[in-house]
Amino acid sequence: MLRGRRTMTADEANRISGLLTIPVTEVLAQAGIQIEEDARSMPVKATIDARGALHPVASKNPRRVVAPRDVPAAGLAMQVRAPELLQDGWVLFAGAFDSRVMAMIDRVAVVEIVGDGRVVGTIKRGYDDGRVSIVPFVGNANIENVEPRSAAPVLWIRPV
Fold this sequence. Notes:
Elements: H1 10-20, H2 24-30, E1 39-48, E2 54-56, E3 64-68, E4 76-80, E5 91-94, E6 108-113, E7 117-125, E8 132-136, E9 143-146, E10 148-158
Parallel strand pairs: 1-4
Antiparallel strand pairs: 1-2, 1-3, 4-5, 5-10, 6-7, 6-10, 7-8, 8-9
């Protein structure tokens, strides 16, 4: 293996990294294996329908996607599942939920609406204090003057 006559196994790479006290990705990179260091795997925990509404994935083993490093572990990966839309299959990555929704005006976010579920869209000012309007990421029916509970900013959008 060290002479290049056979490939390194994952167990060997792990043992070498422990002996040298370096990350296993460094061992693999030195062995000539290309490593994408700015990515990690994350489960798709929700789907987005044609109206922009979020639906949790009920599967015990949800599909996993490669997520950018700056998406926090408490973040959310969701996929558009609407065959009639151009965005069908796109994956969106959101950060953690925060109750300071008004600080996210004009940003695309997952918005939790009091008594009405979650929707993905651009947050706009509402007509009354403490209320917002939402322009859905998909679909064309604006949601006007609703009371938000919290929101999670969309950090990345990965088209397919």
